[in-house]
Design brief:
The chain has 268 residues and is an all-alpha fold. The protein has a single domain, classed as Up-down Bundle (Ferritin). Helices cover 76% and strands 0% of the residues. Helix 1 runs parallel beside helix 4, helix 6 packs antiparallel against helix 7 and helix 8 packs antiparallel against helix 10. It is globular and about 75 Å long. The protein starts with a helix and ends in an 8-residue tail after the last helix. The protein binds fe (ii) ion (FE2) (2 copies). The site of one fe (ii) ion (FE2) has 4 residues, from helix 4. The site of one fe (ii) ion (FE2) has 4 residues, from helix 7.
């Protein structure tokens, strides 16, 4: 994994969030829309505000792997970027005259889920949230007429797309250590968890979605397309890796096609 690329990316990009100037205008949205948006954004704000303690602990446990050198530092910077998102969203909630949250049920379920299994699972649940965030901030930037919400949503959308790419790089490194059958199991459970999360979010944020003229079903449809796009890119990389490994094996002296039939998959 090219962790140096990510370290540089986060160092440059997070600074932009601290310096981001928001339009100096009062919120002019109708009362019901303002209220629904403020509540919804406050939930996302709470989700972005974690300190990453467990994620960092998990990261330390794989820090010695050769292919993940520098990953620990990259995760520290990634967590810092998420905290800069929390700060931007807090400014947005204040602008919308909403209330910042300390606890909220869907956020608590989400945090509990993240720590159920191991680092890969923690990252996967985090990734699920980022795929949902991509849809959410995309809709806010396109459909909310408030200039402060638009400015923040546009920046967060760009950042979350970077995060998706960062997580994909990490998952690729971990998935190449699994057999093709286990990769399929992983895909299935990832899809199931993502679908369940999209249902919960589309229900929990239904008032906000209504104010943006988006139905919960349309939100879930967009979320499913984002998942497909993420997953197909990941699978393309895994296939390329497998093809490359097979070609390397074929060019190795002593390799024969008949022996290949009984060989294990190069990625197992
Ligand atoms: Fe974020
Ligand atoms: Fe993120």
């Amino acid at each position: 994994m090219n962790t140096q690329k990510w370290i540089q990316h986060f160092e440059t990009n997070t600074r932009l969030n601290h310096e981001l100037k928001l339009p100096d205008t009062a919120c002019a949205l109708p009362e019901a829309a303002r209220d629904a948006l403020a509540r919804s954004i406050a939930i996302f704000q709470l989700g972005e505000s974690g300190g990453g303690t467990r994620l960092r602990r998990y990261t330390r446990s794989i820090a010695s792997l050769e292919r993940l050198k520098g990953y620990e530092r990259a995760v520290d910077l990634f967590v810092a970027e998420e905290q800069s998102h929390a700060a931007l969203l807090a400014r947005t909630v204040v602008h919308l005259r909403g209330t910042l949250l300390k606890k909220q049920w869907s956020n608590s379920v989400f945090r509990w889920m993240r720590n159920l299994v191991n680092l890969e699972f923690n990252i996967q649940v985090l990734l699920t949230a980022e795929l949902i965030a991509e849809v959410y901030f995309g809709l806010l930037s396109l459909r909310c007429s408030d200039p402060v919400v638009q400015t923040v949503a546009r920046k967060l959308l760009r950042d979350e797309m970077g995060h998706l790419s960062f997580q994909r790089d990490f998952l690729f490194e971990r998935l190449i250590t699994l057999t093709p059958a286990m990769q399929r199991v992983w895909r299935w459970q990832f899809r199931a968890i993502h679908m369940a999360t999209a249902w919960v979010v589309s229900w929990d944020h239904r008032d906000c979605l209504r104010s943006l003229d988006v139905t919960p079903a349309a939100f879930r449809g967009r979320a499913a397309r984002c998942w497909e796009s993420f997953q197909s890119r990941l699978e393309r990389r895994l296939q390329e890796h497998e093809t490359h490994a097979r070609q390397s094996a074929e060019s190795t002296p002593g390799y024969s096609r008949s022996s290949n039939a009984t060989m294990q998959s190069p990625v197992s």
